[in-house]
Amino acid sequence: MASFSRKLGLLLVSALVLLLSVGGVLLAAYLIKLDGQIRQRFAGARWALPAQVYAAPQELYAGLGLSAAELAHELDRLGYRQDAELPAAGTYRLAGQRLEVQLRGFAFWDGAQAPQKLSISFTGNSLSSVRDGDSGQERDIVRLDPMLIGSIYPKQGEDRVLIKLSDLPALVPKGLVAVEDHDFYSHAGVSIKAILRASFANLRAGHVVQGGSTITQQLIKNFFLSSSQTWDRKINEALMAVLLESHYSKDEILEAYLNEVHLGQDGNRAVHGFGLGAQFYFNKPLSELRPHEVALLVGLVKGASYYNPRRNPQRALDRRNVVLGVFRDEGLLNEQEYRESLAMPLGVVGGRGGGVERYPAFVELVKRQLEQQYKDEDLTNEGLRIFTTLDPHAQEVLETHVLDVLPQLEKARRIKPGLLQASGVITSADRGEVLALVGGRDLRYPGFNRALDSRRSIGSLAKPFVYLTALQQPERYNLETVLPDEPIEVRQAGAALWAPRNYDKQLHGPQHLYMALAQSLNLPTVHLGLELGPAAVLKTMQSAGYSGDAKALPSIFLGAVDASPLEVAQMYGTLAAGGFQAPPSAIREVQTKEGQPLKRFPLQVRQTLPEGPIYLLTWALQKVMQLGTGRAAYSLLPADTVVAGKSGTTDDYRDSWFAGFGADRVTVIWVGRDDNQSTGLSGSAGALPIWARVMRDLHVRSIDPVPPAGVEEVLIEPASGLRADEHCGNAFSVPYLGDSAPQEWAPCTGQNPLSAPLKWLRDIFGN
Amino acid sequence: MSGTHQVYPTVPEPVIQPLPPPPPPATPRVLPAPSPVSGPRSAEDISGGAVSSLMKQARAYMGAKQPDRAAGVLERALRIEPRNYFVWSALGQAYLGQQNYAQAESMAAKSNALSHGNLYVSLENWKTIAAARQASGDKAGAQEAQATADAIQARLSAAAGG
């Protein structure tokens, strides 16, 4: 009996040992598998890093047209703050005509610019000198760090800006540890003490009020596991936390956590990590956050949605103050710092989208241009740094006036508020750089982008290309050529009879070519176009940059041509640049995430139209502004600013356009309705008020008055259209190509032998 | 048909602002034809301090056989002075250095268009154009450009000698 029971015991023990061994082997195998997963996840790139998109940096140099107040405004937008002590990078001091700034360092495409102190002086509205803030030595040119304007993240995806623990102010990691995992530096991944404490608190409350997870466990949970509260998940989390701690240092784990943690949501975009969190809530680098700002971010870790400072400011403030209390209790802040921090407001910037997602319409253009060169994954995963052409000042001006003028138009015309839409583009004429772009009234909503995707009939914006086609034939046409303003009927095979009329349904008698354009008369334009032929006119449009599929029919003379505002900007840009076409570009350079230059998008220009005829056309487009449909602009622009432009109105007032340029800025504005119904607004009534305000605020420079080779400026007597001299009262100068100017002298001149007696009389009695 | 040069009443269209009196027509400044040997000789003669400094940087990059970097710096200069023909001219040379011949020629042509007949910069531009055409296999075009460059050189030398 005894031997039986001993045998049984032996058997049981053997079975148990076997079971344990098998279990041990299985457990070991499982742990090895988990260990592999952890190592794999932590080796190499831990995150898909969205591309970061930057605006063009503001250049600072003597002679720049920028006032002290305007520079201070730019600095504010970059997240610099005024502080008389200039304690650190990202601060400035403004005193009258002098601004001192602690500039941030930045890795530009062509080299790094170190953080530095600058002293900048102004005279009136322009910058007079830039000096080194310490040595007082004059600096030729310095750049501000560029504004971060967006990122290219995958749909439904995570967005983050990577940070290094070594670059952070100590309060960030220490504060996080104090609040989230007090024993972080002493436990082995799991804290029995924290679990017991949490269990006790939860038991007392009757439900879960506290988590016992360490920072390591939270990181594991975010990296590998779902957020379900099951036992096997908890056990896995604990095992993996211990394994992670065995491979990686505390600092490595903390750095990963700071980059991983979810801190907010912006539509589809999830804001991850403290680096992006600082930009998203405070519009500045993490290294510049002050204690109350650090406390807000640390507080958000507990629940980014619940404590969302934009939606629930009071709740966020309470949480922040609790965190500040912990900072003080842990000795991270002294009593005075604590009091000062408590008194600070939340300090969160912006509304929806916050500081980063500023210009979705422009970033959309950037994305499209990048997609021609890069795969989607490269853009959303590799952390590329994209340097763009966006000029934040021009963008602000364009946005301001689109938003201001539309409600005024709606009110004046009794249009339902919100019904009008608008879009606009500003480019640099000679280089084709897109400086500003508005895709619709809802500026922060990345929806339908009218500046890129709305192809509408361009109406009279097409007319300059009819006239330019004519002016390329100096033996037949010049600016003084007289055109008939008479009814016309055009019959085309398979189409209804076309009988265009002037906008005012009136006839005005014969018109000089330039005046027909200035007044935007339809009938002289059609007469001229028919002499030239639609194919020739279409070719001129294509040479200027039109790439649509309009057919060569007479209706194109009056703008039966669909184009987007961006395409119109390209076409008018070619005019502004004297016939040199530059494709619209939004990107200058691309860097790797480490700051190494990867690719430059070089300037490209190509002469596609001759400069002489363009000079003549530009002269006529100046008359549009001085005498014609654009003249209301001069109620806003200084009278001595020479600009050229053209209004565009389509059938039934569906589209209101204005396109024009100064020396180096091309601006195109469209106003209309999304349902393509009439707005009752002509180009002069709808788009021009926005255009003129934009050009005024850009301080647009006058068009260069120097004629190119082969163009002769001749004084003309208006009544006869013949050469004039100083004796003719109302003569004015008209440019002619080659020797196409009239050779005959007008009767008023002293040159005409027939008028010698008149001259003699005039010499006696004066004019 | 003789022109009746009056300003017709404009198409009546309601505008937001009351119409201002039209400004006096701008009288274009008629400049004398540039004398063959006058005019600025180098970028420093027409550029501000910022652009001069960038031109210097660009020359250093060109000297270090880094034409791409030079082009980047020159584009920066153009954003400050978009019509500085010396900068466009240097950009043509930078493109030549990058073996982008079509753009080298375009930039030189742009510089010529802006230069108001300045012979010093035209000479450099025609040399660039000749080299770009030669390198891209357009022998006849290269010869033509070189002949233009030679003619400009001859005018400059004659003027200097006289």
UniProtKB/TrEMBL annotation, chain A:
GO terms for cellular component: outer membrane-bounded periplasmic space; peptidoglycan-based cell wall; plasma membrane. It catalyses: Preferential cleavage: (Ac)2-L-Lys-D-Ala-|-D-Ala. Also transpeptidation of peptidyl-alanyl moieties that are N-acyl substituents of D-alanine; [GlcNAc-(1->4)-Mur2Ac(oyl-L-Ala-gamma-D-Glu-L-Lys-D-Ala-D-Ala)](n)-di-trans,octa-cis-undecaprenyl diphosphate + beta-D-GlcNAc-(1->4)-Mur2Ac(oyl-L-Ala-gamma-D-Glu-L-Lys-D-Ala-D-Ala)-di-trans,octa-cis-undecaprenyl diphosphate = [GlcNAc-(1->4)-Mur2Ac(oyl-L-Ala-gamma-D-Glu-L-Lys-D-Ala-D-Ala)](n+1)-di-trans,octa-cis-undecaprenyl diphosphate + di-trans,octa-cis-undecaprenyl diphosphate + H(+). It holds the Pfam family UB2H. One of its GO terms (molecular function) is serine-type D-Ala-D-Ala carboxypeptidase activity. It is found in: Cell membrane. Pathway: Cell wall biogenesis; peptidoglycan biosynthesis. Residues 424-681 form the Penicillin-binding protein transpeptidase domain. Residues 151-325 form the Glycosyl transferase family domain. It comes from the Bacteria. The keyword Hydrolase applies. Residues 60-144 form the Bifunctional transglycosylase second domain. One of its GO terms (biological process) is response to antibiotic. Gene3D superfamilies: Biosynthetic peptidoglycan transglycosylase-like, DD-peptidase/beta-lactamase superfamily, Penicillin-binding protein 1b domain. Its main location: membrane. The active site is at residues 180, 460. Keywords: Antibiotic resistance, Carboxypeptidase, Cell membrane, Cell shape, Cell wall biogenesis/degradation, Glycosyltransferase, Hydrolase, Membrane, Multifunctional enzyme, Peptidoglycan synthesis, Protease, Transferase. InterPro entries: Beta-lactam/transpept-like, Glyco_trans_51, Glycosyltr_51/Transpeptidase, Lysozyme-like_dom_sf, PBP_1b, PBP_transglycosylase, PCN-bd_Tpept, UB2H. In the C-terminal section; belongs to the transpeptidase family. Cell wall formation. Synthesis of cross-linked peptidoglycan from the lipid intermediates. The enzyme has a penicillin-insensitive transglycosylase N-terminal domain (formation of linear glycan strands) and a penicillin-sensitive transpeptidase C-terminal domain (cross-linking of the peptide subunits). This is Penicillin-binding protein 1B. It comes from Solimonas aquatica.
UniProtKB/TrEMBL annotation, chain B:
The keyword Repeat does not apply. Keywords: TPR repeat. InterPro entries: TPR-like_helical_dom_sf, TPR_rpt. Signal peptide: none annotated. It holds the Pfam family TPR_19. Residues 11-37 have a biased composition (Pro residues). This is TPR repeat-containing protein.
